[in-house]
Write a structure and sequence with these properties.
It is a single chain. This protein has 353 residues and is α/β, with parallel strands linked by helices. 44% of the residues lie in helices and 14% in strands. It has helices spanning 17-29, 45-53, 73-86, 100-103, 114-130, 167-176, 190-193, 195-203, 225-242, 250-257, 261-272, 276-281, 285-290, 297-309, 338-351, and strands at 4-8, 34-37, 60-63, 66-67, 91-96, 136-137, 142-143, 160-163, 179-180, 213-214, 217-222, 293-295, 314-319. Strands 1, 2, 3, 4, 5, 8, 9, 10, 11, 12 and 13 form an 11-stranded parallel β-sheet that branches. A two-stranded antiparallel ribbon has the order 6-7. Helix 1 (17-29) links the parallel strand 1 (4-8) and strand 2. Helix 6 packs parallel to helix 8 (195-203). The longest helix has 18 residues, at 225-242. The chain starts with a strand and ends with a helix.
Length: 353
Amino acid sequence: MTLKLGIEIPYTDLQNRDDLIALAREAEDLGYDSIWCSEVYTYDTFTTLTHIAANTQRIKLGTNIAQIYARTPALLATTAASLDQLSGGRFILGVGASGPQVIEGWHGVAYDRPVTRTREIIDICRMIWSGERVSYHGKVFTLDKGLKLLNAGHRPDIPVYVASLGPKNVQMTAEIAEGWLPFPFSSEKGAEVFAEPLAAGRQSRSPERGPLRIAPMTPAFLGDERQGLDVARGLIGFYIGGMGSREQNFYNKLVQRYGFVDEAKTVQDLFLSKQHAEAIAATPDALVDQVCVIGDEARAKDRLQAFESAGATELVVAFLAGDEASRSTPFAFLGSDREVRSQMMQALARANG
């Protein structure tokens, strides 16, 4: 089976809307199944995807991820319905709880009950999309006025993907969502580490949801393997070392579950001590390779097969920049060199053929 491939929009491309549309159209022409936009502390995702929807024909449009703490369930549902209607049914709503650093530090909202909140938001969104009157009494949200969405023309079954890592959140995802967006996902250890919560969630899964689609967000570098490992190390090291506090870093905890216990602790100690370069250097090759697609076209084909063997049905690929200027921040996916990006996109599409 050939994996469905999606492409993650580089944050750098949000500064140049012409390049962004060129990226989306090229991905569509090359047969990529979807294009995804994130919002950490950058431009919002829906505006960008609306622009892409108006300038493409077939490629699916996904949020990876849309902030749920910054929006009410009704606003999230109606924004999703609007974009789905505008795009002709191409929209995928990717949601996630993010973490305290972003939710409290950027949005100024208390980070509470993330799993319960995610479940209730999905329930309410589906109720709104169905066109029925909304009456909901949950632990987080209460909606009791019997209002309903006035507009028609969108799908009542917009697919929902959840970015989740913790066991309870992954179990909930496997139970109620159409898709799962894990990051970082190990092609060697991911199936084993997540086996129990995925199995538990699937036991309660409604048959109408169909099989769970597993779509890891996967950094990719098509080219020299050594260079690719060094490039990807900056992104992976930043997440396990600096994306959260010592007490609450979901990525660090996950990497430890992959077997890199001492290494994860060392990277975090160095990062929190402001020794950022040393922290990145301490991020092991073996970990970086497991969670990325790195190497020439032949090796990329092997890596895609490894992810498929680990349970992935789709990959959301974030192409990485090969030059220092393009890697000014850990989030600077390939955006400055359109020719190099195009070559990588073509090579990965061939490798997946």
